[in-house]
């Protein structure tokens, strides 16, 4: 009786241990499979369909069109919740990466570790939402110049991205990086085209210049030359 009772106890202990191990394995499987299931998007929504007006599918929560320099926020039902929004992306040698990514982390008051502002301080990258390796993020930045790889947004749009996107949300980036943005120069003051001189249309000042000594003509030319226009584009984050 005693020996049989001991065997029964041992069998019960073994069964309990097996149950515990099985439970641990189940938890591990769900831990691994969970992110994969999350990638499939909202149940009942066709996450493979393109969202109208964008190059992205319904699985994306943020969509970027580098070629068109536009971005959108997309809700869980696969509908545009904000956009299109004007953006600027990376230029030659610092292109914004193309592909499918996930939001990794966020920082409301981030400072760049690579770029300095005009005062020599780390440049501000407000409302940063990081989604790709190398510190690539959505953040508030200049819409007049190329970035160093990040996606620049206007202030209100940067706040909307920061408030809307959550860790793990999918980001889709499409299109080749532009070789040069049309807004490389100050957009509200396009570069003036050089005027073609017409020999027969000389001014009275030019005619009067003929009778002056060569030195006087040179001084007049320097004095009448327009002052150089300073570069008003300030340094910023990536």
Q: Would you count the extended β strands for me?
A: 9
Distance between the termini: 78 Å
pLDDT averaged over residues: 73
Instruction: Give me the CATH superfamily of the domain at 62-174.
Output: L,D-transpeptidase catalytic domain-like
CATH topology of the domain at 62-174: L,D-transpeptidase catalytic domain-like
Strand percentage lies at 15-25%
Q: Catalogue the unreliable spans.
A: 1-9, 23-39, 182-235
CATH architecture classification name of the domain at 62-174: Beta Barrel
Q: Quick one: overall form?
A: globular
- Tell me the Rg in angstroms: 31 Å
Strands of the widest sheet, in order across it, are 4-9-1-2-3-8-7-6-5
Features:
L,D-transpeptidase catalytic domain-like; globular; alpha+beta; 27% helix; 9 strands; 238 residues; 4 helices; 24% strand; nine-stranded mixed sheet
Question: What features would you describe in this structure?
Answer:
There is one protein chain. This protein is of the alpha+beta class and 238 residues long. The chain has helices spanning 2-39, 155-164, 204-209, 214-224; strands at 62-65, 70-74, 80-88, 99-102, 105-116, 122-132, 136-140, 151-153, 170-174. Strands 4-9-1-2-3-8-7-6-5 form a nine-stranded mixed β-sheet. Strand 6 (122-132) and strand 7 form a beta hairpin. The termini are far apart. Residues 1-9, 23-39 and 182-235 have low confidence and may be disordered.
């Amino acid at each position: 009786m005693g020996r049989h009772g001991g065997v029964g106890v041992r069998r019960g202990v073994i069964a309990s241990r097996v149950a515990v191990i099985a439970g641990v394995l189940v938890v591990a499987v769900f831990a691994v499979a969970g992110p994969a299931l999350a990638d499939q998007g909202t149940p009942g929504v066709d996450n493979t369909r393109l969202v109208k007006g964008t190059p992205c599918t319904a699985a994306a929560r943020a969509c970027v069109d580098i070629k068109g320099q536009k971005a959108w926020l997309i809700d869980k039902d696969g509908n545009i919740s904000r956009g299109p929004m004007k953006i600027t992306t990376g230029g030659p040698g610092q292109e914004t990466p193309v592909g499918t990514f996930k939001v990794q982390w966020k920082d409301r008051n981030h400072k760049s570790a690579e770029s300095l502002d005009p005062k020599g301080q780390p440049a501000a990258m407000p409302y940063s939402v990081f989604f790709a390796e190398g510190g690539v993020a959505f953040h508030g930045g200049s819409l007049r110049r190329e970035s160093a790889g990040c996606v620049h947004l206007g202030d209100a749009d940067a706040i909307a991205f920061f408030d809307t996107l959550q860790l793990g949300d999918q980001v889709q980036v499409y299109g080749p990086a532009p070789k040069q943005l049309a807004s490389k120069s100050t957009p509200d003051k396009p570069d003036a085209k050089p005027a073609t001189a017409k020999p027969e249309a000389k001014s009275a000042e030019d005619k009067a210049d003929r009778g002056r000594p060569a030195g006087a003509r040179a001084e007049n030319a320097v004095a009448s030359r327009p002052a150089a226009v300073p570069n008003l584009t300030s340094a910023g984050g990536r």
